[in-house]
Amino acid sequence: MKERIIGQVRRVNGPVIEADGITDAQMLELVRVGESRLVGEVLKLAGNRAVIQVYEDTTGLAPRDNIYGAGMPLSLELGPGLIGSIYDGIQRPLEALRALSGHYIESGITAEPLDRKKTWRFVPVSDLPPGTEVEGGRILGTVQETSRVEHRILVPPGISGVLDSLAPEGDYTVDRTVAVLKTDAGPRELSMLHTWPIRNPRPVKQRRPLSIPLITGQRVIDTLFPLAKGGTVAIPGGFGTGKTMTQHAIAKWCDADIIVYIGCGERGNEMTDVLTEFPKLVDPRTGRSLMERTILIANTSNMPVSAREASVYTGVTLAEYYRDQGYHVAVMADSTSRWAEALRELSGRMEEMPAEEGFPAYLPTRIADFYERAGYMDTLSSREGSVSIIGAVSPPGGDFSEPVTQHTRRFVRCFWGLDRQLANARHYPAISWLESYSEYLDDVTPWWEEHAGASWAAERREILELLQKEVRLQQVVKLVGPDALPDSQRFVLEVCSLFKNAFLQQNAFDDVDRYSSVDKQLRMLSLILVYSRRGAAAIKRGVTLVKLKQMKVLTDIVKMKFTIGDDGAAEFDKLQARLERSLDQLESIYA
Amino acid sequence: MPDAETRNETRRRLMSGREYIGVDRIDGPLVFIRKTHPVGYRELVECVDPEGNPRLGMVLDTSDDVVVAQVFEGTQGLTLPGTKIRFRGRPLTLGVSEKMLGRVFDGLGRPIDGGPAPLPEAEVNVNGRPINPTSREYPRDFIQTGISAIDGMNTLIRGQKLPIFSGNGLPHNELAAQIARQAKIRGGANDFAVVFAAMGVKHDVARYFTRSFEETGVLENVALFLSLADDPSIERIITPRTALTLAEHLAYEKGLHVLVILTDMSNYCESLREISTIRGEIPSRKGYPGYLYSDLAEIYERSGMIKGSAGSITQLPILTMPSDDISHPIPDLTGYITEGQIVFEREMSGRGIYPPVAGLPSLSRLMKDGIGEGMTREDHPHLASQLFAAYSYVKDVRNLASVIGEEELTPLDHQYLEFGEFFERKFVSQGKDEDRSIEQTLDAGWEALKLLPAEELHRVTDEEIEKYYTGAG
To answer: Which CATH number applies to B2-91: 2.40.10.170, 3.40.50.300, 3.40.30.10, 3.40.50.150?
Structure first.
């Protein structure tokens, strides 16, 4: 793409610049501004003027500096080598930038997102003889990208023609031609790399209804508020309530094939934490390092604000690319509030009329566009793939009535509200069981009943009812003290307290507790409910609450999350038998 | 068209330093100049008042017709025809040097202690540049502050940014000074330095810090940047940046461990709001500009450790919460950027507890990786978690007691009340010069737990109970 001058800077105001003398700029065209070639994007065109947002620090930029157009929109490079990389919001590889400019990110430096020197072993698919008619999304061959990810080389969407030649198996760099198509517009050479504009969703054949849960290994999520593969969820919470911890836990242990982690306007040290920790962690399902399925997008809070705006699109486009290869991808966006604030800041600089709290009126549309890129799809190559979006929201003052939380709620179907009180008591994950909900419940119930046990939906409902009951009882306790309640009601408080301690709280740093399989989750839930039902019956027969609370087996139930592993069915049987025996004994005394 | 490229650049180079006589408009700290050559964004401006004294400023908005610059030293006494403006063609820089330790500077880094300006080792742009996340080293070295509420419950880690959320009249200055005096790494070299930036604080506060550094004989390791309450408010915007520029030089070039104390960030944010309002920007919450988060992040993120460099920057920003409201935009946005917070509680201070560190809302995010065996003591993580859980229950019991009266509480709840009292009086509370080792802190924690029955301690292991609870001591 030849660089051409499309105009000159007229005014610089932070990351937004006004340009004039515009000749043939396109809307959303990628541009480079000034002699240090700062990356930017055309946002508005009017007559010979344009408004451009610049993705880098604009210090030193002056009126009359030239603006160079690239002739294409802001796009990503897609191909082997993405996994395990860390990029900034506009897909500049941070490792390579470090080699170029040291510890600090200088303005105007660029590097190829995908290494041009590295070779990959390309294996062409066998059933594709020359002369075959192929179209976008067709798989041409595969590359083993990491030991667990087989990268499928696709014909870029929107291109179709007759296959002229396909390269034999061998080592190729990403920009070497591996296939030639005869198209209506003449021969078209395809390499393993293609580009895609970040703001355009990649096409699919069709959307499918959601039916498979995304198993995260976090009990409060999987059991109480499940997320479906291809679903969307918001995690709002004030600072210190554990948004990032929850996001990290899901990124580590969920059963997606690929993780795209977007650090959008958050702390630099958090990204470093991921970078140092993930390579060491081992996936419980494949036994491979977690970094072998992870792509990081780091646009920390002190990096330019407009690149923060772009970073969520960058992340979701990468996710769609792997979805098109037939993978289940989970996107963590931490935090979407920072993205919304970036929109607000840029909107303010463009002197647009604000709506609520200074946010632009198009905020809901943008949020909707972003979350709608999630889904469970039939890809163009007729495979199944999904993109699930897990977005953290950072409401100011922890107040969920602010615009970003409210608008996000409209477009997601699952809501994990983090609670300040729980976090203060160091109850983690601090997901409130009163405010959270999941609309995917009915969608995923058949899967749970098939894979874990037929009692799942009923037991889940039972414990939620107890938790609701507890809230009402706690209100009474706050007024008159627990002693005023009869034993039968105090026992409800007791069961709920056990459920919170033994089940809902989960220690992300304990080697056993950090991940619970679906079987373990259901067994734990069932066990607590056995205690609840039989205990309630025992109290009716005259057993006192004190005696029930003193049962030795309860301390082992509280610790079962640490002591019994994922394949501990036998141990759960034993624990349950002990519980039943203890209850039998108590009842026989009072019978 | 290579000619066109260089023409503008050449023009700018030749024009920089050109003097413009007279400005078009002065509004608060902002001056507006028309018909200039192309001036760079954030370029340094020299503004000569009618008496011939130069004042420094920075370009905030530049266009063909008008350039807006903020003048750090205020616009008092400037006249429209008599003011001369020179654009320097480069951003504001600070000449940094290790010799700046032991000296006192104004907010722009010019000495105000009567001595000559130290010979700079390098000229550095004060605005800083973002650190590449791949270059960061994850902080995990425990700093012993000698203060139980911090060491035990909200451990400070080298390279962390841990603000103190305080209120007017609470002892945040005392605590910050105590940390600066006592902070040390156990068994490590202590090549440390303190960079102190005061924004809009009172003269006696500045004097308090100076004296405190003097008395302990560390003054030669301290660089002070003072922009006091009676200095132009606009200067406060640049003060933390100047201070951090020196801190970065000391940490990453000289290998020192730098503790940066920034006080008071609330004043900084108010100056920012002032400028924003004058420029007619669209405000977000409480009139603060929409970019307050990004702006604060530019300051707070200039901390941490860098791979291959021995030094570190630990930040201790102090901010007073307007009417003790933690959901006010300043503490709120700060909490989203920093790695935890130390929150002061007025009620505790009223009861004579120093430091009045609120147990539950205080938090250190980096604590988990810096404590435990080999770093502090093996029982530390569980002990801290148990203390949190028990203290959180104490708060519930106190609420209940205030409704139904203490007599109605169960015996267990009474034990919890006793624990709460002991915890606040003996563990949290300590002298302003008391320097407790981490062992003393942890033992005090176990002393408090001994007031509770062993069955209540769910978060510690049986072995730990054996060793510290039932065992000797």
So the answer is: 2.40.10.170
Average pLDDT over residues B125-129: 89
Rounded CA-CA distance B136/A272 in Å is 6
A66 near B CB under 8 A: yes
Beta bridge partners, A228, equal A213
Contact: A302, B294; criterion CB under 8 Å: yes
pLDDT tops 90 at residue B219: no
Average pLDDT of the segment spanning B395-422? 90
**Mean pLDDT computed over B432-458:** 92
**Closest Cα in chain B, distance from residue A318 (Å):** 20
Average pLDDT in the B335-351 region? Answer: 94
Could you tell me the pLDDT band of residue B430, with boundaries at 50, 70 and 90? very high
- Is 50 exceeded by the pLDDT of residue B292? yes
Exposed / middle / buried, residue B115 (Cβ in 10 Å: 0-12, 13-18, 19+)? exposed
Per the CB < 8 A criterion, the answer to whether B418 and B451 are in contact is: yes
Judged by DSSP in three states, A47 sits in: coil
Torsion sign over Cα A194, A197, A203, A209: positive
Beta-carbon pairs below 8 A across chains A and B = 220
Residue B399 contacts residue A478 (beta carbons within 8 Å)? yes
What is the pLDDT, as a whole number, of residue B191?
82
C-beta atoms of B327 and A341 within 8 A: no
Interface check for B132 against chain A (CB to CB < 8 A): the answer is yes
Q: Does A476 touch chain B (CB under 8 A)?
A: no
Q: Report the run of H or E that residue A96 belongs to, with start and end.
A: helix A94-101
Give B190 or A301, the one with higher predicted confidence: A301
The pair of three-digit structure tokens given for residue A373, joined into one six-digit string: 């890129």
- Which DSSP state fits B236? G
Q: Which amino acid is at B154?
A: N
In order of their start, the domains of chain A are 4-73 (2.40.30.20), 120-192 (2.40.50.100), 206-444 (3.40.50.300), 456-590 (1.10.1140.10)
Q: State which residues of chain A have pLDDT below 70.
A: 1-2
Q: Does A399 touch chain B (CB under 8 A)?
A: yes
Is A301 in contact with B293 (Cβ distance < 8 A)?
yes
Q: How does the average pLDDT of chain B come out, rounded?
A: 90
pLDDT in tens, B62-105: 998 999 999 988 888 899 998 999 998 888 999 999 999 999 99
SS3 A537: helix
Interface test with A, best of B129, B300, B337, B414 (most A CBs within 10 A): B129
Give the mean model confidence (pLDDT) for residues B287-309.
92
Tell whether the model's pLDDT for residue B6 goes beyond 70: no
Compute CA distances B13 → A233, B19, B217, whole Å.
53, 14, 48
Greater model confidence, B473 or B81: B81
A85 exposed, middle or buried (CB, 10 Å; 0-12, 13-18, 19+)? Answer: buried
Distance CA A521, CA A314 (A): 35
The SS3 call for residue B173 is helix
Contact A338 B63 (CB under 8 A): no
Chain B CB contacts of A336 under 8 Å are: none
- Range list of H helices, A80-190: 94-101
Instruction: Specify the pLDDT at position A456.
Output: 93
The ranges assigned to domains in chain B are: 2-91, 95-369, 380-470
- Looking at CATH, the fold of the domain delimited by B95-369 is given as Rossmann fold (3.40.50)
Q: Kindly compute the dihedral angle of the four CA atoms of residues A246, A251, A256, A262, in this order, to the nearest 10 degrees.
A: 110
Residue of B nearest to A243 (CA): B336
Test mutation, A6, A18, A239, A341, chain B, max B CBs within 10 A: A239
Model pLDDT, residue B8: 72
Whole-angstrom distance, CA of residue A52 vs CA of residue A49: 10
